Amino acid sequence: MRPEVVLAAGYAGLLIAGAFVLEWLSAHTHRRSLRYRTAGFSYHEDHDHWQCPEGQHLWPHEFDRERRLVRYRAKAHICNACPRKTACTDSDRGREIVRPLDPWPHSEAGRFHRGIALLLVGLALLVLVVETARHHHIEEAALLAALLVIAALAARRLAHDLRAHPANFPDPSPSQGLRMTLTGADGQPPTSR
């Protein structure tokens, strides 16, 4: 087997493995950051509230439809009188916890990392296709074909997950500085009746 084929197969294998490592690391980092922000607090799903280490409750305060977040806040007078306030929050309005409604793949960061992972697998596919076209020995073609199947399955899984988890990006609105006009198929504004 030629060294060029072995190097190309190894490189493609590393790209595929790197794509899945990137996918796992980004999901792990997301879960870890959520745990860090809520360290010491426990969430009670049955009543939809958080409980602080001192036993006080943080109730839903605001639902942000655009960002798909729920903000929970403790009562200000309770937090301000708490002996652990300096270690917990610097706000005079009470401790706040923000909880995303959507899991990691729906987030903008999740879609970005999944897109990068898909790009890595696509690059691996390109390398394997080029090498398969260049070398026609049986054992080389078998190795490259096996890696092509693995890369194609990985690309299919990542692309399916990317399509299945749409990001909840807010729709643009005129208040965000975008000029939105309604036009017909001919590009002209509709006539008023």
What's the order of the H and E elements? HEEEEHHEHH
Largest sheet strand order: 1-2-3-4-5
Question: What would you call the shape?
Answer: elongated
Number of strand segments: 5
Given as residue ranges, the uncertain stretches (5+ residues, pLDDT < 50) are: 172-182
Radius of gyration: 25 Å
Number of helical segments with 4 or more residues: 5
What structural class do you assign from the helix and strand content? alpha+beta
How does the major sheet shape up? 5 strands, antiparallel
Helix content: 40-55%
Provide the residue-averaged pLDDT: 81
Q: Multimeric state of these chains?
A: single chain
Please indicate the percent range of residues in DSSP E strands (runs of 2 or more): 5-15%
Give the termini distance in whole angstroms: 76 Å
Structural write-up:
By secondary structure, the chain is of the alpha+beta class. The protein has 5 helices and 5 strands; from the N terminus they run αββββααβαα. A 5-stranded antiparallel sheet has the order 1-2-3-4-5, with no helix packed on it. A hairpin with a 4-residue loop joins strand 1 and strand 2. The chain is elongated and about 75 Å long. About 6% of the residues have low confidence.
Quick gist of this model?
Helices cover 51% and strands 12% of the residues. It has 5 helices and 5 strands, in the order H-E-E-E-E-H-H-E-H-H. A 5-stranded antiparallel β-sheet has the order 1-2-3-4-5, with no helix packed on it.
